[in-house]
Amino acid sequence: MKTTTRLFLSLAFSAVFTGCQKQNPPAPAQLLLKPRVGFLLPAKYNSPDGMTIGKDGCIYLSINNVVHQEYPAMILKITPDDKLEEVITLPPHPDTKLASPLGLAFGADGNLYVADNQAFCTKDKGKSRVLRVNMQDGKALGCDVVATGFNMANGLASKGDSIYVCDTTINSESPMPSGVYRFKISELNPASPIKVTGLDDPHLVVKLMTHNKEHPVGANGLDFDAAGNMYICNFGDREVIKVTFDGDGKVKTQAVLAKDQGIESCDGLHVDAEGNVWVADFLGNAVIKINKDGKVAIIAKNGESDGADGSLHAPSECILRGDKLYVSNINLTYGPHKSSKVFTISVIDMK
Predict the structure, then answer these.
(1) What value does the mean pLDDT of the chain take?
(2) Nearest-5° Cα angle at 136, 102 to 57
(3) Rounded mean pLDDT of 73-92?
């Protein structure tokens, strides 16, 4: 997704008109931090992705296993002392015989909700699901299917009495629509799972359009700040969208918070306690911090690597816990990336 040629032509074109006018000084180079290996994962835990922090201080982690689908997909947790523990092996889809977890979050009911992206398992549309892992005292008691019909269930977040889920590609039109569905926790019944119907579905509260034909990947990372504002990644168009709501829960404003500024893609997203937005730039092998004013700082970035030294390798999500930033390297073959035999979670020490 490089734009080097276009950038060069643009700069050359501009130079014709600026001539000998005084130029603005270049922006100072940002000091990049070097990631280290946080966890070197065995093959049975390949393709880590979504992360969320529970009330117990553990980071709950989706293990998608798309690189080696012979291993069952599952949820792990990273304890406060950085130990890995298994939480649950997720139930496979009855048609594909696979589960494919991406985003996850705890609901107000204390249960863990998981986006099951079946687009990694089949070309058939509408197979993706939302799963509910029933939790009690930090233990998983079982797992239910509570919503179906998504094409590519991806980012998932919780706010108040509702669960919000991104569908990264609602259909194949150009520009491509994607969006965010909202479900009241009280209406999610495993005895009768909700089946979404796309653009006409009343649960669809936010719609995005992606114009990038090279990377037609839309709504991706998803989270809320403490004030209840929603932030969504539009992967292909390299932008983070901020959405505000009125008192009735209807969209009040929807606008771009940050776009470009060195961003090559926007994948997973989390908002910290101070309102900063942390984004995994999958295509750029980078991690980005965006402040409340939309100013972008590139925190870490490296070239292609198998990730064995802790370098970022197709990073798909990042989350801040204390003074450490944890980064999932999903290790997918897509864009500039080719999957390697090394499976890692990188850690960036923010001190």
Answers:
(1) 92
(2) 60
(3) 98
